[in-house]
User: What shape does this take?
Amino acid sequence: MSAQVQDFVVISGFSGAGKSQAMACFEDAGYFCVDNLPPEMIGSLAELFGHEGSKVEQAAVVSDVRGGDAFEGMGSVLDELGRRGVPYRLLFLEASDDALVNRYKETRRRHPLAEGGALESAIRAERALLEPLKERADVSIDTTELSASRLRKVVADKMLAKTAHGRLAVTFLTFGFKHGTPRDADLTFDVRFLPNPHYEDNLRDLTGLDPEVIGYVEGSDGIGQFYERLTPLLDYLLPAYENEGKAHLSVGIGCTGGRHRSVVIAEHLARQYGEADRYLVDVVHRDVDKPPRRP
Assistant: This one.
């Protein structure tokens, strides 16, 4: 086979796990993309790209259980690509059963393995069918807690080469420890040592986006010393990750409920590093809209 194709990505995984969003990430990067490609056609497509005159150097295809009985032969298809020297990578997307069920209920789509049966049974059947494929994935991403935009950033980080003129994308992700730690955070900082606005009656129903809470947290004992230590650490780590070719870095900031302290600090850091214009900075407040626990 010709060396024309430099990167051939096969995207697979669970129905509802975000394969369309992953493919959109490759499409935005200039890859030739095909969705819902039956496994038996993957080899033919790769061969077509290898012919003289083909201008396709990067391609991404989605193949999953929608391919029916033929999907069980996916392992053999990948083995054949390897024997032919096709430079392929397998991206596998998964999610928890609860997340998949909720996504299907929200979209009201039919699971390809449901056939009139229960959705939960279809997901269990799909999990058993996909297990061998997951074990041979080059990159596996759990999308349970990822929004569509964050999934695309994670895919770009793990699968796409960072351009020479690209800037490191830094996401400051706030969360509440009582709701679980984020699975995709590269760095995690715990700010529960600071006084908690939750215990102030006039602040409990507000969030770290409100001036009253911002003033309370920024005026807390210990906040200055915290910034004095955290900022030099980030000043060291961000360029180090950038030099390693990382395209996206997720910095988790956690407090008890994810509504007050972590939000104030993440917004502070986002302004600080965003104004420098060296990084592409955004902020995601995962739990800020969850209602506070009543005393």
The longest strand covers residues 169-176. The CA atoms of residues 186 and 250 lie 5 Å apart.
